[in-house]
Design a protein that fits this description.
The chain has 12 helices and 2 strands, in the order αααααβαααααβαα. The protein is mainly alpha-helical.
Length: 272
């Protein structure tokens, strides 16, 4: 019965935010008829893809009752560090993709260990890694801006292919993958159980430290993947930036129906 109530509440929340989104679109369209023009829609989809991917990743951390404030600066740091290796000729363009994901995942692992093993408050731990990731990109990359190439397969694959916002198509695919992990896998069920009652989950024999760490790994990985879409869409990445990006992603997760207290997560709501 409780599960049915949660599902009903989550579905109702999704309907409300879809209705609110529809009203907002109609209002902006009324104010400016070009709002629903093809160019504007493609431009918005390109801009929103990195934030949507970050939101998908941080949903796992929030589902445990935690938060990850580092995803914005980790996203930019991943793009800057990988881009610097590319401009120096250390990496071909295709190799920057796994490097960005690896850097984001590494920061996620650090966050998870700080929160799960060292028992630091998640706010403090991720605030610290936010500062470290921003400072690291500034120290290792003295250039104020890193430039990714334009008009290549990289842009066409992750941003815009002949006017089609392929970045947003990637977001939908990643959303289905995240939904499967969250709702259909043991990992997702344990993460939600930790958010509902961590002590009861631990007493039932589940390694809560491991699965809580894994939730932050997913969050960091999402930031690393978001760096790919950011680099492909904007091509110019400024070092030592990213502050504030996490607030947009986290706000989207909360508004989408994921509980700040943990235990309830809405992947679809995060995307909407």
């Amino acid at each position: 019965m409780n599960t049915l109530k949660k599902l009903f509440a989550k579905g109702k929340q999704n309907l409300l935010i879809v209705a609110a989104l529809a009203v907002m679109v109609l209002v902006f369209w009324a104010l400016n008829p070009n709002f629903l023009g093809k160019y504007n829609i493609v431009s918005m989809a390109q801009s929103l893809a990195p934030y949507a991917v970050m939101a998908l990743g941080v949903t796992f951390a929030i589902a445990t009752g935690g938060i990850d404030l580092s995803i914005g600066t980790v996203c930019i740091a991943s793009a800057v560090l990988a881009g610097k290796m590319f401009t120096l000729g250390w990496l071909p363009l295709w190799a920057t993709i796994p490097v960005m994901i690896l850097i984001g995942t590494l920061f996620g692992l650090i966050n998870g260990l700080l929160v799960a093993k060292l028992k630091l408050p998640n706010f403090i731990a991720t605030l610290g890694t936010m500062m470290v990731s921003r400072g690291l990109s500034a120290l290792l990359v003295v250039d104020p801006n890193i430039f990714f190439p334009t008009g290549t397969w990289f842009n066409r694959t992750f941003s815009n292919y002949n006017g089609i916002p392929v970045g947003f198509l990637w977001v939908l695919g990643l959303a289905f993958l995240c939904a499967y992990v969250m709702y259909k896998s043991r990992v997702g069920r344990y993460i939600l159980a930790i958010g509902s009652n961590e002590e009861a989950t631990r007493l039932s024999g589940i390694n809560t430290d491991f699965y809580k760490t894994l939730a932050y790994v997913f969050s960091g990985m999402g930031a690393g993947i978001a760096a790919i879409f950011w680099s492909a869409s904007f091509t110019t990445v400024a070092a030592a930036t990213g502050n504030g990006m996490e607030l947009d992603a986290i706000a989207g997760v909360y508004i989408g129906g994921t509980s700040a207290a943990g235990g309830i997560a809405s992947i679809a709501g995060s995307v909407i």
